[in-house]
Structure formats: C-alpha cells, structure tokens
Write a structure and sequence with these properties.
The complex is a heterodimer.
Chain A: H1 18-27, H2 30-38, H3 45-49, H4 56-69, H5 72-97, H6 101-127, H7 134-148, H8 150-168, E1 170-176, E2 179-184, H9 190-198, H10 218-230, H11 232-244, H12 251-275, E3 284-285, E4 290-295, H13 298-307, E5 314-318, E6 324-328, H14 335-351, E7 359-362, E8 368-372, H15 381-398, E9 404-408, H16 416-432, E10 436-440, E11 453-460, E12 466-472, H17 492-499
Parallel strand pairs in A: 3-7, 6-10, 6-11, 8-9, 9-10
Antiparallel strand pairs in A: 1-2, 4-5, 4-7, 11-12
Helix pairs in contact in A: 5-6, 5-12, 6-7, 6-8, 6-11, 8-11
Chain B: H1 21-28, H2 31-38, H3 56-66, H4 73-88, H5 90-109, H6 123-150, H7 157-169, H8 172-184, E1 200-213, E2 221-236, H9 246-250, E3 256-258, H10 263-317, E4 333-338, H11 341-346, E5 354-357, E6 363-367, H12 374-388, E7 398-401, E8 407-411, H13 421-436, E9 443-447, H14 455-471, E10 475-479, H15 483-493, E11 499-506, E12 512-518, H16 527-535
Helix pairs in contact in B: 2-3, 2-10, 3-10, 4-10, 5-6, 5-10, 6-7, 6-10, 14-15
The chains are: A alpha/beta, B alpha/beta.
Chain lengths: ~500, ~550
C-alpha cells in the first residue's frame, strides 16, 4: 500500500496532537479558511488538514504531488473522477434502498458500470498528462496494472454490454379513457418537438412522477410485470452478472480516492481565489532565509472579499542570522494580521500547498506554534496572566528546536516592567532553542537589546492614518493618533483643494 | 420583448437619475405637476369632462420618469413624438393603459405576489399559473390589435415600432400555436369561459402518450411527451353524470392497466397528468416572465404618456401656452413668455411670463424686491429644464436650452428661515453633498441660500462657495438677499461676459410687474419699501 500523503505511510499513525493543532489553526484563522475549502467535500477531509507531515521529505513529497494536481489537465481529470465517485456512492445507496431484487440488480449494474468507465476515463486522461511527482507516478503505474488485469477486463466487458442493453430499452405508455396500454419501442416525441419549436432554445426534462422513492408505485409494478414478461432473457443475464461479481472494491484505489481530495479541494479553492484576483504561489525551498513578497492574510481576504474591501499585502524578509520579529505600532494597524499571515505561510508550506503571496521562499521548520492572548477576558488581571502562562507552558516545553512561533500580545495585563521582563525571557528561551518567529506586542522595549531580534513597525501616513504596511523600523515609543475632523470643507481654499 | 416607449433602445430603469430628485421635487414644487398628471379627467369624447378622479399611479409614473433626465435631443424628440401621438389618440392611450392595468390587476388577484414563476408547486398553483398564462397571452394580443387598428394615425417611431414588434413577435402562427397549447391542457385548468349548454355536461378529458426508459433501478425515467390533447365529452343531462360509469366496464380487459383496478393507480395517473401539464408549463415560464415584465414596463411607460396627456389637457384648459422645445447647439438658454406652471395651475393661468436670453451665462445673480417674482422666475427656469428633459411640453411660447443632466437645488425653505446654527449646519451639509456630487456640467439653483445666518456671515459663505464653484465651471443661478455678496460679485465681474445680474422689475411709480429683467444689483432689497408699505412711515 502506498499513500499520497506520506512516503512511508506506516509512520503516519503517530499523529500530531489534534487539540493543540486546533488551537493553532484557530489562532491563525486557518480554521475559517479550511471551512471554506472543505465545504462541499467529504467529512474526513478536515482530519487530513489537522495534522502536519512528519518529516521534511513528506513535505516535499506532498508539494510535488500538489504541483502536479494543480495543473489544468490533471486537475480536471481528478475533479471529473471525483464527480463519478459521488455518482457511484449515490447508486450504491439507492441499491441499498431498493425493495425488489431486480431493482437492486439494476442499480448495482449502474454502480459497477460507472466505476469501470470512470477508472478507464481517468487512466486515459492521465496518460496524456505530464506527471513529475513520485507519488502520482506510483499511482499511475498501479492503475495501469490494475486496469489491464484479467479480472477487471472481464468485469468491464460484462458491465458495458449489459448496461448498453438496459439503457436501450424504451416503452410507450398511452393513457386514455381511464386505462394505460404498454408497447415496446419509441415514438416521434411529437409534443416535445412542438414545444421546442414554439419556444426555441428551451429544453426541459419532464419531472418524473415516480422518482423520489426507490419503491415501485402500483402503476410501475404493473408496468414492470408486463415488461419482464416481454424481456426474460435480459433478466437472466443480469442475475448471472451479479452472482459472478458480488463485490468490487480495491483497497489501494479506495485509499487513493480518499487522499486525492486533500489536494483536489485545495486546488479548487486556489482556483476560485485566483478568479477573484487573489493569487497564490509555490514557496521555494530555502536553507535559511525566510522571504515573501505580496504576502497577505488569506482569512482576512476571504472576509474582505465578501464585503468588497481591499486586503493590503506586505513584504517579508528574515535573514539567516535573524531569529525573531518584534512587531509594534498603532492599534488597528495590521499587526495581528501580519502575524497571522506569517503563520499561514508556514502552515500551507508545511502542508505542501501553495501560499498566499506573489513569491515566497520558506526554510524547513520542525513545527508551528502559536500563542494568542484571549480577547475580552472577563477574568481579573492576575487570572488572565495565570491563564496565559499556563497556555505558554507547553510551547516552552514541547517546542522542538527549529519551530516557527507566532506570539500575539503576551502579558497585556501584567505591570509594564514585569511584562517587559517576561517577554524578554520568552524570547531568549525561544532563540536559544533556535526557534524562529514573530512576537506582536505593544511593548516597544522588547525589540531592543538583541542582535537576533528585528524590530518591525506598522506604519502610518503623514496624517497619522494607518496604512496597514509593515516595515523594518527603529522602535519608537507609541504615540496616540489624533485624527482631525474637518467638518464640511466648504471654505474657498478647501473647495479649491477638493476640486484639484 | 421590449416596450421601448421611453427610450428607443432600452427599457425604463432609474439609473442616471438626478442626484437628489426629492430635493428638486420639493424645491421646484413639482408635486403640482404630478397631481395634474394623475388628474384622470381627459375629455374622452372631446366634449365635457364626465367625471374627475385622481389616479395616483399616473402621478407616480410621471414623477419617476421625470427624475431621470434624457441625455440628448434625439432622445427628447423620440418622447415628444410619442407624447404628440398620445395627445392625438387619447382614446387609444387610455385603452392601452386600462388593458395593461386590468391584466396586472387580475394577475394580482390570482396571487402574483405569493406565486413565484417557474417553481413547480401544488396543483392549485399550476392551475393559477395556467390562468395567468392565458391572461397574459390574451392581453398582449389585445394590445397588438389595438395598436394595429390605430396605426394609421400614428407617426411616432416609438409607437409604430412597438406595434410592428408586437406583430412580428406575436404573429398569427404563434397565436395559433399558443391557442393549441392552451387547448391541449385545458382539461387541467378551467381557462375558458363556461359554455352553458342546455342539454349536455361538457367534460374535458386528456389523452396522453409518453415514451420512457427503465434503466435506473427499473424505475420509469427519461420521459418524453409524444401526444397530449384534451377531448371534450358531452354527457347528456338527461341521464346525468352516472353515464360516465359506462367507461369503466369497457376497460377491464387483459394487457391493459385499468385506472379502476385500484385507488393507487388512479393517484399515479393524476400525478402523470399533473406533471405532464407542469412540463408543458415549464416551457411557458420564460414567456410568462417576459410577458410579465413586458406588462410591468408597458403599464408604467404608458402611464407616463397618459400622465403627459393629462398635463397637457390641464395646460390647455387654463390656456397656458406650451411648446415642445427644439434641438439647440452650444450654450443656449432662451425663453419667450416662460411661465411657472405650478403657480399657473394654482392661479388658473393668470400669471406673468418672462422673456429673455441667458445663453452663455454661467452665473446669474437675481436680486431685488420681495414678492417680486424672483423665486418664481428661478423655479420656472428649473421646471422648464426638467420638463424638457423628460420629453414633456414646456409652458412657454418658445423655449430653447442646452441639456443639463446634473441639476441641484439649494433652496432655503420658508420653514427653515429661523435663524439658528442648527439650520445653518443643515444648509452647509446640503451644500457639502452637492459639492461632493457635482458630476459633469452641473447646474446649481440657489434660492436664498445662507439666509439662516447674519447677512455678513451669509455673504461671506455664499461668496466663497459661488466664487469657487464658478471658477470650477459650475453653472449657478442664484436668488439672493445677501446684498454684500451680490455687490462684491458685481464689483469683481462687471465686465465678465459670463455673469449676469437680474432684478425684479419695478416701475418708476413703485408698481411691480413681476417680471425679471437684467439689472445691476441694488443696495436695498426693497424690504424697507415693503415695510413702509405695510406699516407706514413714522
């Protein structure tokens, strides 16, 4: 058995801690993004997004597969195949719901026919695609072997011929003077033609009065009785088919069908974002430097998109001897958003996906951690500080060397001197552990005193209006913004300016 | 299918409306015109008015249409021609309005609001849908025929175009096919007026032939309709409905499925009837939608013209001279015996007309005696402009003006004139809104603006604003009591060709003529004079 998620699938069982992953994704608003991505897809998709690949190789393995799958031709082939999986599941369900044996058998025939033809179609399409990832190459070679095997071949032959015979059956039902009569064959479809002629361009299918239940209505039962009497031979063959192939499932293909969605869902999401003008890019591998251009908060983009607002992108550069950003600046200036966008960059890179930026290079990080202060805590200062420290404990203990850490406003309730001191200690600890990351804070003092620490500021324009741009800047004591409100702007000079 | 009576190339929409139509309506007093439009007392027989009633829909239509200025003389001409046709054929206009009105009313009664088109609902809804279909088809044919019957006397591109489009879209073939369709489903819904036959009960029964596949779980699927018709069976009243039973006996033979075998099969048959008719109707939803929006548009558009006919009748009955303004080029404003229609209607025509020429004038400052006709004059210019720009006749012997689609009014309303800062604040806010939304080639009418503060302050504010606006190329006609402002402007622009100062004329003996003539601003607004007149000199 091979997996599309890991080169060594046996290791994958040692999963990450779902609870802490939950906190991380919530802090970074990635949960909102994932909700959007996984809407309309199967339920187990979410689980796959809630654990990181275990090794560096697995991250690359996934990135290579994603690179293949997002290509137009591969994407379309997989998306179509996924549609067929759904169709099949639907038929299978209707088979289970059906009441009469001959009904079950015809549904089963349809399910198998769909399975056979969709796999054939997938193979045919993939043969025309250029595949470079190891994972997909393995899958395609398995698929080729499987489809050309004897068992699959005879299944295919029987299913196709029976299905064709069944699809070709037509009966004519005449209803007049209180009775129905039945004949085999077709009609001119004259009234439908009259309608299409009278209403050019309109094509409607009649709503089926008998759909909606798997049971036969009394009328249908009578019709089928007459029909069966006329077509005995077909029903004999169908019965034999069902006995010859009592079940068709292949574990490897089942696993593929499940894991394929991991990539397909993200690829479709990326396309829909691209349609709305939000591009993503494949992060380049990098040894030490962390870089991104046009980086944005994807969750914010989703919200803004709905309300028609603009999302301001930012630049990112962290040199190899730099460990931590300390980000200060005015309130509502885009600080937390910037922190989140960094976290998202690392998350999507680790998962093997493209990232919300124009270009990016991201080194390997062993893990991703976050610590966000809980907003609007009704607890007293001491209680909240306790709570924060409690939540910090696992990060300080478990975070392995080389993890990426996003911290947002620690110790806001502590006394200033204490908060600075504690903040410095946290930073020192993480830097000693060779962690990288960003610390969003109102304590400008934290950005001093260390070579490894880079001071960033959320900037304002000349009128003290937030620009939501983040830049490297010497730390400054925060100043309060006073926005002047000019009432109606109707003096001569103001008017001249308004018109210019 | 488009109605295209308001524009040659599109249906009505409120896009491109004046920025603040409500203020314009209020400031220019246009409600009197809307009321005249709704005064449904046309002289239907060219004789006396039989009854007078007020149709608020006509007022509504005129108000909405007038709020969106036409953008070229071509568009204006298109409407003027239709107005002329409608005035000539008042009976036709009236009938068109009442046909569409009746269709929409009947539809309303059938529950238009609660029934969305295109949804397959209950049997009752489908029956209603079919009745609506019949109603709309009959209505459109009635309009088609009425227009065709009157085509001889029509000359407007709009009405003739509509008539020929209707004849093309609903030609006799189509009419016949639609009749066949309605006929074939008539077993389902009672769409025909009942024929009271003396000796027979008429029962409508269907014949349906369908083709179907059986692949999905052997369920009936992929249904196609081959034959559908309604047969009328007459049962003799003498033997009563009981004679239907005969049919049951004959159907109990092998190889066929009888409806009377059990209740469930009868229900299946009913379901087939319902869905077959629903299927046929599904083809018609587009038509119903189209005809629905046609009637909505048509009723609205023809209401505008019937309103126009009524306005014209009103002008005629008060002997107010009117004209349909001609095309003109460049920066033109010429008026001959221009009257203010609202006052004219109020005073039943006994008003003074103004004659003059303001072509090329960008700033017109009107000062002078109280109660001298200044505001009336300003309004008459605004009203004439608005009337012209919606294709209606203008109350003047002759009127020529460039098109100005961006009109703003800033009037100090009588009730506002108490001097307090809240009022000034409100005035400034309105002015700020105007400045922010000027658009292309704007015309701003100021009437006693900034009179809510002291003369000195008001003058300062007005001077700043008018000067800045003027430099920006904004056209401003202002009536003002702010004499410092008027004087300062006069000193600065005495020689400016583009500026004109006007006054309410008063004769040497002090008598007012209510005419507005070019004149330099005076230092007094004759308030003292009025004071003296009323209170006497001490």
């Amino acid at each position: 058995m091979f997996s599309l998620l890991s080169k060594n699938p046996s290791d994958q069982n040692k999963n990450n801690d779902h609870q802490s992953m939950n906190t991380i994704l919530t802090d970074l608003n990635i949960d909102q993004i994932l909700k959007r991505i996984s809407a309309e897809w199967d339920k187990d998709l979410m689980d796959m997004y809630y654990s990181f690949p275990l090794t560096r190789e697995d991250e690359d393995y996934r990135r290579d597969i994603y690179h293949d799958i997002k290509m137009d031709d591969v994407f379309t082939a997989f998306l179509e195949y996924h549609g067929k999986i759904r169709e099949r599941k639907n038929y299978s369900g209707r088979k289970d719901d059906a009441y009469e044996l001959i009904q079950k058998q015809t549904w089963y025939l349809r399910e198998i026919y769909t399975y056979v033809s969709s796999l054939d179609a997938l193979k045919e399409k993939l043969d025309k695609c250029t595949i470079s990832s190891e994972g997909l190459k393995t899958f395609i070679s398995y698929l080729n072997d499987h489809l050309s095997g004897d068992e699959f071949s005879s299944l295919r032959t029987d299913a196709v011929s029976l299905w064709k015979e069944l699809s070709d059956f037509h009966v004519v039902l005449t209803y007049e003077k209180g009775r129905f009569t039945l004949t085999n064959g077709t009609t001119e479809r004259a009234y439908d033609k009259f309608l299409s002629e009278l209403f050019p361009g309109e094509e409607h299918e009649m709503i089926n009065p008998f759909a909606g239940t798997e049971y036969f209505s009394n009328l249908e039962e009578e019709i089928i009785k007459l029909f069966q009497r006329k077509n005995k031979n077909f029903f004999k063959k169908l019965d034999k088919f069902c006995k010859d192939f009592p079940q068709v499932s292949d574990d490897q293909i089942t696993l593929f069908e499940k894991e394929m969605i991991y990539y397909l869902a993200f690829a479709r999401f990326q396309r829909s974002m691209s349609d709305k003008g939000y591009e993503m890019c494949t992060p380049q591998k990098s040894d030490k430097k962390l870089k991104a251009s046009g980086l944005y908060d994807l969750a914010l983009a989703l919200t803004n998109m709905d309300s028609g607002k603009e999302t301001i992108p930012n630049e990112l550069f962290m040199d190899e001897d730099e460990n931590f950003f300390v980000l200060t600046g005015p309130n509502q200036g885009g600080k937390t958003t910037y922190g989140r966008s960094l976290g998202q960059l690392v998350y999507f890179t680790k998962m093997g996906f493209d990232v919300p930026a124009i270009s990016a290079s991201v080194p390997y990080y062993t893990n991703l951690w976050t610590h966000f202060s809980v907003e609007e805590s009704i607890e007293s200062g001491r209680g909240k500080l306790m709570d924060e420290l409690e939540r910090l404990k696992p990060i300080m203990h478990e975070s392995q060397e080389g993890a990426f850490v996003v911290i947002n406003e620690l110790f806001t309730t502590a006394a200033n001197y204490d908060a600075i001191e504690m903040g410095k200690r946290v930073l020192k600890y993480l830097i000693d552990k060779k962690c990288k990351g960003i610390y969003v804070t109102h304590l400008w003092e934290l950005s001093q005193n260390s070579r490894n620490i880079v001071s960033l500021r959320a900037t304002v324009d000349k009128d003290n209006i937030q620009t939501f741009r983040i830049e490297r800047s010497e730390p400054v004591e925060s100043n309060c913004i006073n926005r002047q409100v000019v009432k109606y702007g109707l003096t001569y000079d103001q008017l001249k300016e308004r018109f210019s | 299918m488009n109605v295209n009576l308001l524009y040659s190339d599109k249906e009505w929409s409120s896009a491109g409306a004046y920025f603040d139509w409500n203020s314009i309506t209020k400031d220019l007093g246009l409600n009197a015109i809307f009321k005249a439009a709704g005064n449904d007392s046309i002289i239907r027989t060219n004789k006396a008015v039989i009854s007078q009633s007020q149709d608020s829909y006509l007022s509504h239509a005129v108000k909405r249409v007038m709020g969106v200025p036409l953008k070229s003389f071509e568009e204006i001409k298109y409407r003027q021609d239709i107005v002329k046709d409608c005035c000539k054929k008042q009976n036709m206009t009236d009938s068109l309005y009442h046909i569409s009105g009746t269709v929409l009313d009947e539809w309303e009664k059938l529950g238009r609001k609660n029934n969305s088109i295109g949804e397959i609902g209950t049997k009752a809804k489908l029956i209603t849908d079919l009745k609506v279909l019949k109603l709309l088809v009959d209505g459109i044919i009635e309009i088609r025929d009425l227009l065709a019957d009157n085509a001889d006397g029509l000359s407007s591109e709009g009405l003739l175009g509509l008539s020929s489009r209707l004849q093309k879209e609903f030609d006799e073939d189509k009419e016949e096919q639609l009749t066949t369709l309605l006929d074939s489903i008539s077993f389902f819904a009672d769409i025909y007026a009942r024929n009271r036959d003396e000796e027979y009960f008429n029962v409508r029964v269907p014949k349906i032939r369908i083709e179907c596949g059986l692949k999905d779980g052997l369920k009936i699927g992929d249904i196609r309709l081959d034959e559908l018709q309604t047969n009328v069976i007459k049962y003799s009243k003498q033997y009563g409905i009981g004679s239907k039973v005969k049919g049951k006996i004959s159907s109990l033979s092998p190889g066929v499925i009888s409806l009377y075998k059990d209740q469930a099969i009868q229900e299946d048959a009913e379901a087939i009837e319902f869905l077959v008719v629903g299927h046929v109707y599904s083809y018609c939803t587009q038509l119903v939608q189209e005809l629905g929006s046609f009637f909505d548009q048509f009723h609205f558009q023809i209401a505008f013209y019937l309103g126009a006919v009524n306005i014209r009748s009103q002008m005629q009955s008060y002997r107010i001279e009117y004209c349909f303004p001609d095309e003109c080029y460049g920066d033109v404003l010429e008026y001959d015996e221009l009257k203010e229609i609202i006052l004219s209607i109020e005073l039943k025509g006994k008003t003074v007309g103004n004659t003059g020429k303001l072509s090329g004038k960008q700033l017109v400052v009107i000062t002078g005696a109280n109660q001298g006709g200044k505001s009336t004059f300003l309004r008459s210019l605004g009203v004439a402009q608005v009337l012209m720009q919606c294709g209606l006749p203008v109350p003047a012997k002759r009127f020529r003006s460039s098109i100005r689609t961006s009109i703003f009014t800033h009037f100090t309303r009588r009730e506002d004139s108490a001097m307090n800062s809240g009022r000034l604040d409100e005035e400034l806010r309105r002015m700020d809104r105007i400045v922010s939304n000027l658009g292309k080639d704007p015309l701003v009418l100021l009437n006693e603006s900034f009179a809510t503060t002291t003369e000195k302050d008001g003058s300062r504010i007005a001077y700043d604003i008018v000067k800045a606006l003027k430099e920006e190329g904004v056209r401003i006609y202002t009536v003002t009591h702010l004499l410092s402002f008027a004087q300062q402007m006069y000193e600065e622009s005495k020689t400016d060709e583009k500026v004109c100062f006007m006054c309410a004329e008063h004769l040497d003996d002090g008598k007012r003529t209510f005419k507005i003539i070019p004149h330099e601003p005076e230092m007094t607004s004759f308030g003292l004079e009025l004071y003296d007149q009323i209170l006497g000199t001490h």
